[in-house]
Amino acid sequence: MRLEAVGRRYGARGPWVLRGVDLDVPGGQVLRVEGANGSGKSTVLRILAGIDRPTTGRVSGRPRTAYVPERFPPALPFDAHGYLVHLGRVHGLGGRTAARRAERWLECFGIAGYARTPLAQLSKGTCQKVAVAQALVAEPELLVLDEAWTGLDEDARAVLDDAVRARSAAGGTVVFVDHDPRRLAADTTAAHRVQDARLVPVPPDAAGGPRVVIEATGGGVPPAGLAYEPAAPGTLQVTVPAAESDAVLRRLLAAAPPWHIRSVRPAQPPTEPA
Amino acid sequence: MTATLHYRTALLLRSFRWLPPLLLHLAVMAIGLAAGPRPLLDSLGWSAAALLPAAAWLVRVSVTAEPPAARACVAAATGPGRAHTAGVLAALLCSVVLGAVSTAVVVAVADPHTTDHLKAVPVVPAAAAGLLAALVTALLGTAVGALTNPPVLLRPGWAVPVTALTAVLVLVAAGSPANAAVTGLVTGSRTGVVPFPPAPLLLAAFAACGATWLAATLSGRRG
């Protein structure tokens, strides 16, 4: 997926919220979007999710998308299960698949007991779980999370973190905004900051920190977006910041066919000039 | 699109927000039909005319039925244009059902004679002509509703009075397909000839498609 020279403003004479944004979002990426309050983070997410259309520029190659808002008001005349089945079908699933997945996610979030409760009677947190489940039911290729963790309890946050890793391992893309700077820190493959209506790449924290070398063998294609050095035939070697090693290992193991990890070892620090 | 339409229709029906437009339609029908059995074609004309403002209001009710967060979830899945189109279509479906029921009620209670009570009016062709006119006004009411509500007119302070005014204008303006359809029935009631003009239906369908397309194109861009 790709944004080219994307600009957005609200109203014909409103100020530009975004201007000249170019962004490539390859599959398998977990992308963090940062920025001050009101800087336009949500607008970036809404354009990525296809909810807002850019005023200028173009967006191409958007895959099947699901979106989770920060607050999900319960003003809908459905029960939790009924709403999830409706949304699953809107996402293109058959009725049975939608019902099965709806039940599974309600169970994962520990709210299967509220499946037949009208949304209007659910607590704020439970409603937010339904909003997250709505996106996960779709098993989307692009998952956009606008502070989706807000209002969730610890267990539900962990479920969502795991779901993000599963989406990314399956080759899907996840774009998220969250107040907590440690959110998915080990899984994030890139970060961008919205500043003065522009999107600026944030260098990974771990760039100067320790790095590890991962050596793997296998016959398949290396996961997209992985900067690897081919060693012997059928082997590859990747040097990554230590903080990202778990995410890279997970992607190698989850590839189809999976890669076999031969070794993980600390990289030699670059030699100081004499 | 079918799934989205299904969702929007369920949303509209379960929200009970269709009740005020339905009451408006019933009130106008009651005013027209309360004074005992009236000539059939005349009553069908009145019933079709009463449907137009109700259809426009139903579009407003349907396209504003979701909180913005829920709308965003659906828009991400289908694109904002399709999500909006499904909302307008759900309203149109309800209007068509309402028009069909009203037509059936009028056929059941009205007097199947001309206005001067001298000539009998054939009931089945008259019912078909009534349905045709109801379809014309449902389509035009939908077009009016699509053009006078979000995402075209965002503020309720503008949208509501403009919807009401436009609905009345489309009914009374000479040359409007709704006016032609209703006038055809009223004239038919005097002459005893059941009218089946194809032009108003075509024009109304064209207007509804164009208005919905415009609103769908604007959704995701405005607001």
From TrEMBL, chain A:
Record keywords: ATP-binding, Nucleotide-binding, Transport
Domain spans labelled ABC transporter: 1-227
Domain of life where this protein originates: Bacteria
Pfam families, alphabetized: ABC_tran
UniProt keyword Transport present: yes
GO molecular function, one term: ATP binding
Protein name: ABC transporter
Lineage: Bacteria, Bacillati, Actinomycetota, Actinomycetes, Kitasatosporales
UniProtKB/TrEMBL annotation, chain B:
The protein's name: ABC transporter
Keyword Transmembrane belongs to the record: yes
Spans through the membrane: 44-65, 86-110, 122-146, 158-178, 198-218
UniProt keyword list: Membrane, Transmembrane, Transmembrane helix
